[in-house]
Amino acid sequence: MAEQDVIVTAAELRRYAADVLVAGGMTPEGAATEAEALVWANQRGVDTHGVIRLERYLEMFEQGESNPRPNVRVISDLPAVAVLDGDKGFGPLVLPGAMDRAIAKARQMGFGWCLVRRVAHSGAIGVFVRRAAEQNLVGIAMTCGVPTQMGYPGAKGVAALPTAPLAIAVPVEGGAPMVLDMASAVVAGGNLRERRVTGEPLEPGWAIDAEGRPTTDPKRAAVPLPLGGFKGAGLSMMIECMAGLMVGNPTIVPAITGVPGGKLHNQNALVGAIDPAVFGDPAEYKRNTKALVQAIKALPKAEGNDEITLPGERGDAVFAERGKNGIPIQPAIWKQMAAIAEKLGVKMPKAIS
User: Fold this and answer.
1) Contact, 68 vs 26, CB < 8 A?
2) Are both 30 and 176 inside the same structural domain?
């Protein structure tokens, strides 16, 4: 008989994650912020970016790839643009402040951009762009990092590019923001990591092995494939040019050319906000986004499809369901969590069932 998922509340999962991160060296305040972001991903069904990341995060602290107590510095601050140094802090500790800075600039200048160099893992970046959309602005975010996760079309099964995510959020009249949050790979690297833990086979077309051959075996999978082949690869490269090279912190070239330390974890991010009011009537903009949502959802449904969903809508539905019924944790991940708890002397989350 197969083992059942363990169900826990978001509050219990946040408490556990925060305790683990404090044991790893973070301040209680920083740990609470990071735990909130991890569990937010779990609540939305993006379990690849949730508490499964804790094991790797502890390794990053131990290896000096991430700073548990970063000192974020302002490098430059112009009317519409700013550059920050994240001091190797995790994205949820650094990027909300960067987005707030971009939002403030958008209020004054119509748009605001904030580039952040030397960020550790940013997590599910959709949370940062929602921050702008909830204030009636358009939010944009993208991150680039060390190419440990994605192959390049035509190359043997070696990591050549990061899975460089892109997120965009827009406000919708009378409803939740519409949020696109995507990797430039077919799936994020976290999907492979999760399947290695759970043992579930990969979906066809997700990844290739070290010889460049397609595989569904998570243990043989070397790297995920770019989304749309050259399209995903090109998107990843352009994000590196916009978010990494722009702040003098390249990540791809040092890694694939063998520069000492070039494969250590290292990310950069670009977040931005645009005020629709500088282009026209902001109320009309929100009415038009609502009309777009309604028109798409009213399209005839294909056979076997009960609902047409829009960017971010599935995650909103899962968030509501898991808020009511709890968050399911797969048995293999629960065991991983228990091993961490035992090692650090941290109390496990109390299970609902």
Assistant:
1) yes
2) no
Residue 148 has a pLDDT of 67
Give the separation between CA 102 and CA 105, rounded to whole angstroms. Answer: 5
The pair phi, psi for residue 117, each rounded to 5°, is: -100, 155
Whether residues 27 and 76 share a domain: the answer is no
Are 41 and 88 contained in the same domain?
no
Q: How many domains does the chain have?
A: 2
Query: Is pLDDT at 157 greater than 70 in this prediction?
Result: no
Question: How many degrees, rounded to 5, is the angle at CA 13 between CA 310 and CA 177?
Answer: 20
d(CA 330, CA 319): 17
Q: Which amino acid is at 182?
A: M
Quote the CA–CA distance of 89 and 66 in Å, as a whole number: 6
> Residue 57's domain spans which residues?
1-63+326-353
Q: Closest by alpha carbon to 14, among 33, 5, 25, 6?
A: 33
Alpha carbon distance 328, 322 (integer Å): 8
Identify whether 157 is part of a domain. Answer: yes
**Residue 92 CB burial class (10 angstroms; 0-12, 13-18, ≥19):** buried
- Nearest alpha carbon to residue 218 among 192, 249, 179: 192
Over residues 141-156, the pLDDT tens digits come to 999 988 767 888 887 7
In a domain, 235, yes or no: yes
